[in-house]
Amino acid sequence: MGDNIPDEILSEILSPALRVPDEMFSVMTSEKNSPFHSKSESSSAFLLVCKSWLRVATPLLYNVVVLRSKGQAQALAGVLTANPVLGKFIRKLRLEGGYAISMFKILQEAPNISDIFLTLNIKTPDNVCGLCRGLQLIQPIRIILFGTRDWYFNSSLLWFKLADELLGSSKLVQGLGRAPNLATLVVSNPPKFLLRHIREISNNHSLRRIRVTPFGSWAGNQRLYWDHVKQDKRIAALFDFPDEGSPPNNTPPPFIYPPRLAADPLQEDAIWSRVLYFLSRSAPLIGRRCEWKPAPMAPILVCKKFMRLGLPHFYTSPFLQGSALQSFADRMSQHPPLGRHVRQLTISHRGNSDLFKGIIASTTSLVELYGMPKSSPIDWESFSHLGECTGSTLSSFEDVPVLEAGPFKFASPAVFELFPQMRFFGWDSPISFKLQGEPIPPDTFNNLVRLTVDEFHSSFLEVLAQMELPALRAAAFSATAEGGGDFFQKHGEKLEDLTVSVLQMADSDLAILQNCPSITTIGISFDDETFVSKWWPLADSHACLERIVFQNRTPHRMKPAQRESFGRFLRSLDLASFPALRQVEHPNCSWPTTDREISRSQWVRWAEALLKQKIQLVDSTGAHWRPRLKYVPNLTRKR
User: Fold this and answer.
1) Owning domain of residue 214
2) How many whole angstroms separate alpha carbon 379 and alpha carbon 371?
């Protein structure tokens, strides 16, 4: 395809993907917080599409070069030495380290550099021997220096000398004072001691402007710094301070209501109703990981029309806690038709069962009911009332704990027949059920797709084992769960996504992997007390298992014993037993961003060992480790 497109057009197509914005190139951040720390595919992948893309994209790729590790610098030095033509494409160079002798090779082969970013935060064992020698070989138009207060902790004497010259003004300030083409000097958060150096630089007759870019705490220091600057009128005339309080130069024209819209009331109502619908959308609290943000009520208070059109939308997904509970209940009693608009309800009823039952009785079209973390449980009578009032429409019930039915009282499993539309069901209750007597219809919970179980009595799983559950595909148990043999024997073949506790995984009587031959993802739920140890049945095998996900609802820092245990588990993985396995996820996994952190990270060592078996180790966001270029000592020197 690329062979049929002229190079000029292909260049325009590839430029947006390979271009590095100047504000990104020049941003003042440390190596750890660099905007170039990316988990996505390298931009060099565009060069591998075809020969046309390679020819056109190569100059674009080398136009802006960002070096973040010694391995990258060494590789670039080798490439430029072997093919000097590539060095002529480099116009901007950003260095986030020293990178030793490799930098001399790079600067020697890149004579056209116009912009260079240097950092003063060089840490042992990195050094700037090559950089100090190579800087004399280039003539950049712009130099960006970034340094923080921790620059002096380095033990490299050579860089101490350069840093002292840069910050102490001996050669740098003298050079800037004599630079014949220096027109603009940009400083970010300048300390007061730097003012004397700026005063010396300002003697340069070609200097026309000194600009301060706000950064960090500059907003609070701006007036104090300006008081020192204005004492010297000559320097004050050169300074260009950002004026953050100035009003915009041009204001937008006033909004004119479309006449055609006002002439058609039905169309007007339909359009504004749709607008208010999107304004009323809010993020519901599903499970314990999603943060809920209430929808703003201000739009429906604008006028009577907005109130009439928007009120039904704002009652679609109410979020009730605190004083909002009673207000909502009063509103429902005063205007019963509003209850028909409620489809999704997130509630914390504060233990007031009568209030909860009153709200449920008013919302007869309810589809989804969610609790909140640490929300008060409902009693068994309220759960039965829920089934009688909204069971015919309810499809989601999660994070709502249910109290025991009473002392020495067994609950009837017939209550589950009241929820024919249930698809996502979460159970958190110690209630014990009657197992003798009238049998449960096997078509109960026929639409159930996902089952989440926190606290439970063994009789609950035995009740589920009496159902067919033809749509069930996912099940999740808490870190303290035990037992469930009847459940796994009856429904294990249907499950594709399963989360079990460490105790369940270690229970040979449950035989999780044998009873669940279709699962592609297995989660291991653990807490501070339980962790991966000797639970993994190494003798087992599974043909379909693709992902192993470790889950902890209360993340904590891994203890040494837990790290060692997890390391043993990773080393024991064998593709012969799990041929489809491609990914292992752990919530404590975190990827380092600097060379120093990478060299110390145990996660990196584990990830690179697994990659040899084509297995990815990923963090809680799903990002896997991308191997970096390795630095080979003395390789550059040999070249």
Assistant:
1) 2-240
2) 14
The answer for residues whose C-beta is within 8 angstroms of residue 574's C-beta and 6 or more apart is none
Give dist(CA 90, CA 115) in Å, integer.
Answer: 10
Q: Is residue 494's pLDDT more than 80?
A: yes
Cβ-Cβ contacts under 8 Å for 600 (sequence gap 6 or more): 592
Pick from 175, 86, 93: which is nearest to 140 by CA?
93
List the structure tokens of 56.
């056109």
pLDDT in tens, 51-80: 888 888 888 888 999 888 888 888 899 899
Measured N-to-C along each axis, helices 7-18 and 51-63 cross at an angle, to the nearest 10 degrees, of: 50
Whether residue 520 is contained in a domain is answered as no
Q: Taking the mean position of all CA atoms in its chain, how far away is CA 540? A: 34
Radius of gyration of the chain (CA): 33
302: in domain: no
Assigned token pair, 172: 């740098």
Run of H or E residues at 512: helix 512-515
Write out the H or E segment, with its range, that includes residue 131. helix 129-134
Distance between CA 472 and CA 33 in Å, rounded?
A: 44
CB atoms within 10 A of CB 74: 25
Sheet bearing 92-95, strands edge to edge: 64-67, 92-95, 115-119, 142-146
Residue-wise pLDDT for 93-127, tens only, equals: 988 888 888 889 999 899 899 888 888 777 767 77
Q: How many CB atoms lie within 10 A of CB 180?
A: 7
Q: Supply 370's token pair.
A: 């969610």
C-alpha–C-alpha distance, residues 550 and 450, integer Å: 19
* 617 neighbors 607 (Cβ within 8 angstroms): yes
Q: Which two tokens stand for residue 329?
A: 């209940």
Query: For residue 453, what is the enclosing H or E element?
Result: strand 450-453
Report if residue 307 sits inside a domain: no
Angle at 132 between CA 128 and CA 134, to 5 degrees: 115
Q: Which two tokens stand for residue 416?
A: 């589950």
Tally of domains in the chain = 1
Instruction: Quickly tell me which residue has 């470790």 as its tokens.
Output: 550
Q: Which of 397, 514, 404, 526 is nearest to 451 (CA)?
A: 397
Lowest mean pLDDT among 88-102, 223-237, 254-268, 525-539: 525-539
- Structure-token pair, residue 198: 């700026």
3-state secondary structure of 551: strand
What is d(CA 200, CA 167) in angstroms, rounded to the nearest whole number? 13
Residue 352 lies in a domain: no
Contacts of residue 559, defined as CB under 8 A and 6 or more positions apart, other chains included, come to none
- Integer Cα distance of 457 and 439 in angstroms: 19
